[in-house]
């Protein structure tokens, strides 16, 4: 029986990716290393490849070694701002100074694009942590309200349920006491994760329940396109129609973009790995495509859509790249055309293929040369 074409193999590729993930976890367990720690240690290597491929998709070419140098420069750049929410303005200002310095030193557009995307990929780690923590605090708020009811009348609660509830209260206290450092450059003087949880409990429940806001996307766009687009177009919705890609596709008129993006953010997948029930690979493809389909910015939509893809994968899988060689570009165009006709599986196939590649490289890195595995 002939093998199905790549774009019809989503269920199979998703299972292979799951098997590779399980193998990676088992390999880490055998070496007595936390999988999250390994990912943290190789993150910049993965980002270096993603930056190379993502910019290549846009026709931006830069030698791989130079790309890695710029990625390293971003990851080694110290951050000093602290507080309960990501300091968009502070991070943007730090990045602006970096870009201006590079331009004065004669950096090329390709180099600027590489360092921009490096900073943006570092930022999605912070955004993932922020969205997850804000959604986690909704559970804290709900459980805290229930605690008041329990204090008034606990006779109707079965013992097994009572024990689970009490364990929930203990978890809240553990979160509030956590001395781990806050996850990102923040805009208020809060140093620990415990202080952050306590502060977030002051935030209205509805704001926490749907934490994704357009400001996160504007922030990513400002970072990604700084020094490439005029400042007036960075982090700002487009004011003119667009005519790109498939001539049969009509993009949203500029007047509809703000409302469509509000809806996009309201429907954004829950970034809380321990509670989600959806398929993160398919959701990553969906979130990426929906942003491209709205085309909210005058330029850089493809790069932002691939950042969003990795944001949805955050907490479930490593970040991935869509290959940008001749075959990779052809596959990406095919996937987008089919998505335009309502079929997202080809795009999800590319995400799954990217994950399989990353897990294979992680497994190789954890296996000594000449070993049987």
Describe the structure.
With 373 residues, the protein is mostly helical. The chain has a single domain, classed as Fic-like fold (Orthogonal Bundle). Helices cover 63% and strands 0% of the residues. It contains 14 helices and no strands. The longest helix has 44 residues. The chain is globular and about 65 Å long. The two termini are 31 Å apart.
Topology diagram in text:
Blueprint: H1 10-30, H2 35-57, H3 64-75, H4 88-104, H5 109-152, H6 159-177, H7 193-200, H8 205-209, H9 214-225, H10 257-266, H11 280-294, H12 301-313, H13 326-340, H14 345-365
Helix pairs in contact: 1-14, 2-3, 2-5, 3-5, 4-5, 4-9, 5-6, 5-9, 5-12, 6-7, 9-12, 10-11, 11-12, 11-14, 13-14
List keywords for this structure.
single chain; 373 residues; mainly alpha; Fic-like fold; 14 helices; 63% helix; globular
Summary?
The chain is mainly α and 373 residues long.
Principal-axis shape equals: globular
CATH class: Mainly Alpha
Distance between the termini: 31 Å
Helix content: 55-70%
CATH topology: Fic-like fold
Average pLDDT for all residues: 85
Total E-strand runs: 0
Give the C-alpha Rg: 22 Å
Number of helices: 14
Tell me about the biggest sheet?
Answer: none
CATH architecture: Orthogonal Bundle
Query: Approximately how much beta-strand content do the residues carry?
Result: under 5%
Number of structural domains:
1
Secondary-structure element sequence? HHHHHHHHHHHHHH
* The named CATH superfamily: Fido-like domain
Unreliable parts: 78-83
């Amino acid at each position: 029986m002939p093998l199905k074409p790549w774009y019809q193999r989503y269920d199979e590729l998703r299972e292979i990716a799951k098997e590779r993930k399980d193998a990676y976890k088992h390999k880490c367990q055998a070496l007595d290393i936390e999988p999250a720690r390994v990912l943290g240690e190789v993150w910049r290597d993965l980002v270096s490849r993603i930056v190379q491929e993502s910019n290549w998709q846009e026709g931006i070419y830069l030698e791989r070694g130079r790309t890695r140098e710029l990625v390293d420069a971003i990851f080694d750049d110290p951050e000093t701002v602290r507080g309960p929410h990501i300091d968009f303005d502070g991070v943007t200002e730090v990045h602006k100074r970096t870009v201006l310095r590079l331009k004065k030193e004669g950096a090329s557009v390709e180099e600027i694009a590489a360092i921009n995307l490096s900073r943006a990929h570092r930022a999605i780690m912070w955004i993932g942590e922020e969205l997850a923590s804000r959604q986690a605090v909704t559970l804290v708020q709900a459980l805290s309200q229930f605690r008041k009811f329990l204090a008034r009348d606990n006779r109707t609660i079965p013992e097994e349920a009572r024990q689970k509830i009490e364990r929930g209260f203990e978890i809240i206290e553990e979160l509030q006491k956590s001395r781990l450092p806050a996850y990102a450059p923040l805009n208020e003087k809060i140093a620990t994760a415990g202080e952050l949880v306590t502060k977030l409990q002051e935030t209205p429940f509805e704001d926490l329940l749907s934490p994704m806001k357009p400001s996160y996307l504007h922030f990513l766009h400002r970072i990604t396109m700084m020094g490439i687009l005029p400042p007036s177009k960075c982090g700002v919705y487009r004011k003119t129609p667009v005519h790109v890609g498939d001539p049969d596709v009509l993009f949203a008129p500029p007047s509809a973009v703000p409302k469509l993006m509000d809806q996009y953010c309201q429907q954004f997948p829950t970034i809380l790995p321990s509670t989600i029930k959806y398929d993160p690979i398919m959701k990553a493809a969906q979130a990426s495509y929906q942003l491209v389909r709205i085309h909210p910015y005058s330029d850089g939509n493809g790069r932002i859509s691939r950042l969003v893809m990795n944001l949805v994968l955050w907490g479930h899988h490593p970040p991935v790249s869509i290959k940008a060689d001749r075959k990779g570009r052809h596959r990406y165009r095919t996937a987008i055309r089919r998505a335009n006709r309502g079929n997202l599986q080809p795009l999800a196939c590319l995400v799954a293929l990217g994950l399989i590649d990353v897990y294979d490289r992680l497994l190789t890195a954890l296996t000594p040369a000449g070993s049987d595995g």
